[in-house]
Amino acid sequence: xxxxxxxxxxxxxxxxxxxxxxxxxxxxxxxxxxxxxxxxxxxxxxxxxxxxxxxxxxxxxxxxxxxxxxxxxxxxxxxxxxxxxxxxxxxxxxxxxxxxxxxxxxxxxxxxxxxxxxxxxxxxxxxxxxxxxxxxxxxxxxxxxxxxxxxxxxxxxxxxxxxxxxxxxxxxxxxxxxxxxxxxxxxxxxxxxxxxxxxxxxxxxxxxxxxxxxxxxxxxxxxxxxxxxxxxxxxxxxxxxxxxxxxxxxxxxxxxxxxxxxxxxxxxxxxxxxxxxxxxxxxxxxxxxxxxxxxxxxxxxxxxxxxxxxxxxxxxxxxxxxxxxxxxxxxxxxxx
Amino acid sequence: xxxxxxxxxxxxxxxxxxxxxxxxxxxxxxxxxxxxxxxxxxxxxxxxxxxxxxxxxxxxxxxxxxxxxxxx
Lengths: 336, 72
What we know:
- The structure holds 2 protein chains of 2 kinds.
- Helices cover 52% and strands 12% of the residues of chain A.
- Chain A is mainly alpha-helical.
- Chain A has a domain at 105-275 and 296-335.
- In chain A, α7 packs across α13 (257-269).
- Chain B is mainly α.
- Chain B has one domain.
- Chain B contains 3 helices and no strands.
- The relative contact order of chain B is 0.09.
- At the A-B interface, α1 and α2 of A face α1 and α2 of B.
């Protein structure tokens, strides 16, 4: 019987760092930009990976990190590969890619807010809704009335092509689920004039009863208008099957037609590859590119923080008011 | 509290040094192994032999030691 050779002198495990220099370049870039320093390095026991991760987390801040974790599921990664034509491809030339992908969308029930604002002043609810919608469109993918209307339209087209089973189709009737002030403003001849009027109306009410919401909306709108270079490479060359997954579902009521449409559509959203919510490539050796990447991520985080602070404020307000009916006798609202 | 500038510069220099340092010996061994067809084939034979040995019959291996060169 022949024994196996002794293995005790043979290394049993290897760890291999491929292109590890990029991690050190990233760490150096973050120190140069003031995102992390020697104090943090001392806490990381010599691990550059831990240093990079903690630098990013600390730059976001614990309170803001927890707020986002409560409301939405984002995944931030820094990598030397990116999707190109549907395949993970090495970026090369010492470049890194930061991506933020959404794994699970946040939820905003905006119906009670619109009702309350419309009761405050005619047109104020619609002004709030459309201003928020256009602001968010600039920076993230939403699932809202528009997606639901498109889904309903597709369902109707399918049913027309399916003579045998036409009667078995159920339509969500999205338009009926919209508040009147939104339905009546779905289309307007002069959208710019409508939005200008909306801005004036919101400004008028900034220091009134619902000023807190309007102030939060103003912050979201301002952040969304910050001009930043767009890294089109992700969209143009990524070969993704679909646009980014929604970061926020905006419904008017719980279980309304928009939520029903989202529930249907979301079953298929994870089947293909989706473009990241945010993607930017940079070279850690080029300070200007590093700063641009930091600005893009900072804006994204700040806007999401403002958004979900507003969402939580609305949730708290709604709990106090027990549903969609606004109690005008509530003293705390009068004081607001 | 502000961090002393030298400490920051020192940390940047540390990362720069790490970035330009050659990969550790363990990484180089692994790269040599992954680039060597014979080494990969030997690893595959070893894995298959271990699978057979772990099978029902627990047959002793008939593999010569010189086919199992240490990676180091």
